[in-house]
Amino acid sequence: MAKKTIQxxxxxxxxxxxxxxxxxxxxxxSPLMVNSVQKAFRILMAFSRTESRLTLTQIVDKLGIxxxxxxxxxxTLLVMGYLDKDPVTKTLGVTVKLVDLAHIYLSSNPLIGAxxxxxxxxxxxxxxxxxLTVLDGTEVVFVSRVVGNHLLSTGVSIGTRLPAFATASGLxxxxxxxxxxxxxxxxxxxxxxxxxxTVYEPAKIMDRLKTIRAKGYALSVGDYFPNDISLGxxxxxxxxxxxxxxxxxGSTDRLSAKxxxxxxxxxVSAAAKSVML
Length: 277
Known about the structure:
Elements: H1 35-45, H2 56-63, H3 67-80, E1 83-85, E2 92-94, H4 97-108, H5 110-126, E3 129-136, E4 139-146, E5 161-163, H6 168-176, H7 179-187, H8 202-215, E6 218-221, E7 228-236, E8 242-251, H9 257-274
Helix pairs in contact: 2-3, 5-9, 6-8
């Protein structure tokens, strides 16, 4: 399910605020599950771009765990170097050490290595920004990006997560899945308008996926970012598994939907089909 940022207001005391229940993950009831590992990762994932520093009390309120548990786990993460603590504000934040984990994924993932030459070629042919994304639950995650000649103000970078139903590459991957699986992911998504043109009604999304299947690519205009126009196509393995998606992004200030489709749709589709794993 798409992640939601839970804001702490500071106007509610701990006794009045309702704690956020821990999400139930698949396999959480397995005897192999180590709950302490899960709690440690939940603390790390409590931080975000908009909440980059948190107090211990904010962590307690956000995750719905008791203060002594939060103290033990944050202390352990501090000692290990994954958190730091501001001596003045007493707030906690993640450290550069987390980049080590991301680097392992980015440098060893076969999809990124196989797709990179085609991303670079597509960028060179079009001059536009080209992205490689993977589907993670109901979201797409940007795992590689070649920036184009024109400035985009979306703030997207490697590691950015966006709802699949509101992105070109996400729609392309959803369309490539079986209809029942796509319907389930859409039902589990955070369906709401992120921009004036967001298509977020389940029936309309499913109709949209039918069109995408017929064309072989997805067109997104202002679904998440108001001035964004993107084309996306799925990367499918030899045995039919959806591995990721390639997208090309531009601005509606320069490009129209008709121009983007006529100029770039074949190129984006060809790039995605060329990635063989």
